[in-house]
Amino acid sequence: MADVRILDDADLDAAVAVLARGIREIPLYRWLLGEHADDLGKRAWLAKILLLPLLRAGCVAGAEVDGRLVGVLAWQPHDLDLGVVTEGALTRDDFSAVIETPELLERLRELWTEPPLPPPVPDGVNMILVTVLPEVRGGDVLADLVAPVEEYCREYDRPAYLWTGSPRVRDWFAAGWHGRVFAEVEWNGVHMYGGVSGRPLTSRTRRQM
Description:
With 209 residues, the chain is α+β, with helices and mostly antiparallel strands. The protein has nine helices and seven strands; from the N terminus they run E-H-H-H-E-E-H-H-H-E-H-H-E-H-E-E. The protein has a single domain (3-196), classed as 3-Layer(aba) Sandwich (Aminopeptidase), CATH 3.40.630.
């Protein structure tokens, strides 16, 4: 079983390194990276801008095996205003890589200016992204990572939901957390599945993926 804890600023570099390895497997971010999907520097840049605001808000969990970070999960409660919580967390320097890459900048602008995908319920907790290193897949690390979100949802009696372009993630979430698909949409060229759990988010059983 992995040791799971909430990450903080001291863990940023390790968390970015983990997400940078897995981010191109997430269909939406693979679309965003486009022809730069094999560029580790661009993947690390994207991982940082995705993780840092949520990490500052205390909404990134990390899984460690033998003292090494091997997985991350980021989530956002419906009433968390990241703009207020993390003002100044990202600077212009953090966007230098994308400013120098017009096609990547255009896709990022498209992603950020479109209306967000809708939540299934007003008070749901959005499980934004999750990844684990390839060498620990097939065990319980992914399920272990969800534990802090389960605890939060039990305390506040909330369901969790996710939007994913991966049928495998869709099925894993549905099978493990009393989930169901509430919508399917085409978004930025990616077929996205919306999955929502029961209330509160509760693990049905350990599910490998």
